[in-house]
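Two proteins follow. First one:
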Amino acid sequence: MAERIKDADINNYSIVIAYYTLLAIFPLFILLGSGIKVVGINAQTIMTYVRYLIPETVYALIGPFIKDFLQNGSVSLVSITGILTLWAASRGINAVKRALNYSFGIKETQRYLTSRIVSMVLTIAFGIIIFVIFIAFSFGQLILDYIIPRFDLPLDWLETFMRLKTPTAFMGIALVLTALYYIIPNCRVHLRTIIPGSLLATTGWLILSQGFSLYIKYFAKSVMSYGTIGTFIVLMFWLNYSAWIIIFGAVVGASNEYYFYDGITMKTTSIKHIIQQQGQKVVGKHQDDE
């Protein structure tokens, strides 16, 4: 575990991820606001989870902006915000990819252009996953309204779903982190090894979000005296700690992978390898025809 933590360089990469997350967060919610208008989701439904997941001190600063972006999202802004979000988020994903690869003891071998393309594709993929999760949670009541009478389930289930935010938020974050740990590293991993790390990271992140106000009260109270600038500093603290927890979850998964499977197997998804594979198939088919 100690070796994996050292290889991951958690402290440095968590700062990089926090920086690009800060750049991407507002364009992301503008883009999300445009998307929920298309599918007809109420912005307040999303704000319920946003308020739960973001520390109270941070929410006081960015909450009104996020709500405004969600309620007044414009389809005409999709192209501009999409480019800004893709650029900033893909840089963050690239930093996550490097940190996760180092967690598994893998050195970055992809060329710059290939790495950027892969990061952008992964950014789009995870954006779709997050959007689908938002839709699933937003329409959860409609789904239960359909299922409950057909399977003769207790009506209390519907009330519980609407009342309890923690299980819903936990499930959504755990799904995203599991996908993150499974897809991004440039090696083959097993679900049984990464799920404990994703559950641990999810738990840690929720505890951080709910308990961050205590940290501000007892350890960083003087920072808040700087007003808006102080709040942005606090936001960077929270993003930094969040990134640290996410990378640590990957370290747990990497340690499990080495423990249960005595090492890792590299993915063979490079462009060069794919071209070679296709070339071999063409040559083999040509020889069979002869």
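Second one, unrelated to the first:
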Amino acid sequence: MSGSRQTLGLIGWLLLSFAAAAIGALASVQAATFYQQLAQPSWAPPSAVFGPVWSMLYAMMGIAAWLVWREGGWRRQRGVLTLFVLQLVVNVLWSWLFFAWHHGSLAFADIVLLWLLIAATVTGFWRVRPLAGALLLPYLCWVGFALALNYAVWQLNPETLGLVCADQGPGSPVRVGFVEKLIDS
């Protein structure tokens, strides 16, 4: 593979990773304010930590995907690179579920799926290029931490994030969580 093609490939994988970050960020415009209003477990980091950590992780993700892509391109690595793209989509969806739509249960289900997809991607990348798999290990650990945090915050904020049934008397419809917010707006 020529040097210019490799450089373009690196730029492409980094752009894809940061495009996913940008789409997730669209859902997170009010994230800092919203996050600070939620009851937090004592071990929750300040909201200012998330941006720098995620920026580093997205860069490492792009580099890891590029290292795998260099081993035969998309044609040869289609399966594991498709898995990588799929986990990016699930990653983006989490921001929308949690920050934009305030749905803790679906965000939790999403982040569990995300962790499993990342674990599978780490394994697949490791088989192709161990360094690529190793570059994703901090991402796997961070999402594991985020999974625990998502669950704790969801449980501490059932009125805002949970499936809270609002029974309003006989004959009244039961509305649940974010659906109620959509109906009332």
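SUMMARY FIELD: The longest helix spans residues 73-100. The radius of gyration is 19 Å.
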